[in-house]
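Please decode residue identities from the backbone states below.
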């Protein structure tokens, strides 16, 4: 038998000088556990530990041996280990089948979270994004397909793993336990007036506010307020405003926007706070912060919402691309 104390002692002594677990050490400990507990070679062993991986990975897996960092899960999913562990096991199995070595998996992992199983996930928000999407990006999907064709991955195993991940995802949604990180409602921009809607409710904003909001939707990395006066930004806001403006000649419409953008301390701030109020009315105070335009004086202002939760179609019904999501820092 491998008692908890025994395992704890083995894990502690496997730590490096900084008190973290290197990848090799993890698999060595799992092998020791396997021997000590006299487990069958095909038994899946998951080492749950509060001790961090040296490279800060939440989970790592090779064959039937897996490691999961067991701390803080309940903090950001308000759930037991069971769901994230099940999810990560399934995603580890696919990831390991995608490449020949663990080193290559690490090398190929996406540094910027894109809601793919191959996201590196150094940030807790990133891993909950991974679990909310339970998906692979097109690039990784192509890789999975080619590995299946070449016989390195079993199509049925892949399908089962995605099914498991989707079950976990739905379970988490259903429980609505993402207290610190709620599933964001989809934001849509659509129709003749390019109105902004959340599921089952409209966000009431004037044409000027909608133009400002849409401008920031198009700039996921954010823009400093003072830079809104730059000719290229100004022209973009004017273009957005003209689509929705209900009064004035094109020249007057341009003047309106110029007036707002140049009066940063007053008019612009007023519009930003009206946008805030509109989202708070639609969503409540706490959730609104994900959608509003926020920033510190002198730094870029941005909308935090992942752009994958935005559906924008222009007046003709053509999709408008808001650009790639930025990493969350
Ligand atoms: Zn990917």
């Amino acid at each position: 038998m491998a008692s908890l104390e025994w395992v704890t002692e083995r894990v502690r002594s496997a730590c490096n000088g900084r008190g973290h677990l290197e990848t090799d050490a993890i698999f060595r400990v799992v092998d020791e556990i396997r021997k000590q507990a006299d487990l069958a070679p095909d038994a899946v062993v998951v080492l749950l530990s509060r001790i961090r991986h040296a490279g800060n990975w939440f989970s790592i897996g090779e064959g039937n041996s897996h490691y999961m960092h067991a701390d803080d899960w309940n903090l950001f999913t308000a759930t037991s280990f069971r769901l994230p562990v099940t999810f990560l096991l399934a995603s580890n199995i696919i990831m390991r089948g995608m490449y020949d070595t663990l080193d290559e998996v690490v090398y190929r992992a996406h540094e910027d979270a894109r809601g793919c199983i191959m996201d590196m996930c150094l940030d807790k928000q990133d891993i909950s994004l991974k679990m909310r999407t339970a998906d692979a990006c097109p690039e990784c999907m192509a890789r999975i397909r080619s590995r299946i064709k070449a016989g390195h991955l079993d199509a049925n195993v892949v399908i089962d793993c995605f099914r498991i991940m989707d079950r976990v995802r739905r379970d988490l949604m259903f429980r609505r336990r993402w207290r610190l990180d709620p599933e964001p409602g989809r934001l849509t921009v659509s129709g003749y007036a390019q109105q902004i809607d959340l599921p089952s409710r409209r966000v009431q904003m004037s044409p000027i506010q909608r133009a400002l909001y849409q401008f920031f939707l198009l700039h996921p990395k954010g823009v400093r307020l003072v830079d809104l006066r730059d000719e290229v930004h100004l022209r973009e806001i004017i273009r957005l405003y003209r689509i929705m403006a209900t009064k004035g000649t094109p020249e007057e419409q341009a003047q309106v926007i110029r007036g707002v953008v140049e009066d940063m301390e007053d008019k612009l701030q007023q519009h930003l706070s009206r946008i805030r109020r509109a989202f708070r009315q639609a969503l409540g105070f706490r959730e609104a912060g994900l959608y509003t335009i926020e920033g510190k004086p002198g730094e870029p202002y941005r909308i935090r919402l992942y752009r994958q939760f935005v559906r924008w179609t222009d007046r003709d019904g053509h999709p408008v691309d808001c650009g790639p999501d930025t990493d969350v820092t």
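Observation: Residues 219 and 322 are 7 Å apart (CA to CA).
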